[in-house]
Amino acid sequence: xxxxxxxxxxxxxxxxxxxxxxxxxxxxxxxxxxxxxxxxxxxxxxxxxxxxxxxxxxxxxxxxxxxxxxxxxxxxxxxxxxxxxxxxxxxxxxxxxxxxxxxxxxxxxxxxxxxxxxxxxxxxxxxxxxxxxxxxxxxxxxxxxxxxxxxxxxxxxxxxxxxxxxxxxxxxxxxxxxxxxxxxxxxxxxxxxxxxxxxxxxxxxxxxxxxxxxxxxxxxxxxxxxxxxxxxxxxxxxxxxxxxxxxxxxxxxxxxxxxxxxxxxxxxxxxxxxxxxxxxxxxxxxxxxxxxxxxxxxxxxxxxxxxxx
Length: 309
Known about the structure:
- Helix content is 13%, strand content 27%.
- It contains four helices and 28 strands.
């Protein structure tokens, strides 16, 4: 090695050299002080280059040895967004290769992002454009569909996450079905065989074994028993404008479509809530509860008509 030349100052012949400086330099302190004193700004950018000390060492007949890395991409620097993207691509390929060698099936290794720590069991399948962030654990035979984002969560064995789900801070038991287009927010805990369907959001709630919320529902700050069926459009109204209130739903409860459960409230085991009900008081176990206005038709009503301009 004779010297290190900055890319912008290098000749075509120098640019053809297939070896570059990583920025790591080890030198005797006493010698380095003298070489630093010789630095000048005689270069295209008018800057002091620490790397110019190599030429000074050669001139003083001090031995200079280069230590080459076996994985060049690990030592590359970043000067612009293009180079940053290049290194991110390298990291993505490296993590994908590790998953493949460990037995994980990737639909496309170029389209999986691991931005943290991913642990997994056997026979796991990950579809395209999936992002893992933080600490994520996947059990045996977990299937993660396209476009999902999973952050700081655990997914149990044999669970299927259908496409385009957002899962954050959740604990999902075995043999569950999630999505598509579902959102599990922090402290969502699902027991085995729970189904969370399309456009369903769960936050800070526990759902017992075999419970289902398959369509267009919100479950927040609730403890839901086993084998509960939450009908389409059911909302747990947990926020009173100042604080989050808690809801308890017993085993084997069924809620009809477009029901609203206004917390704090307790729904007894085996209860059925009729479609369109807004429930504000305790629901007795094993009974049918209806809380909606009677249907009325106003015979004299006429729809307003726009005036012609």
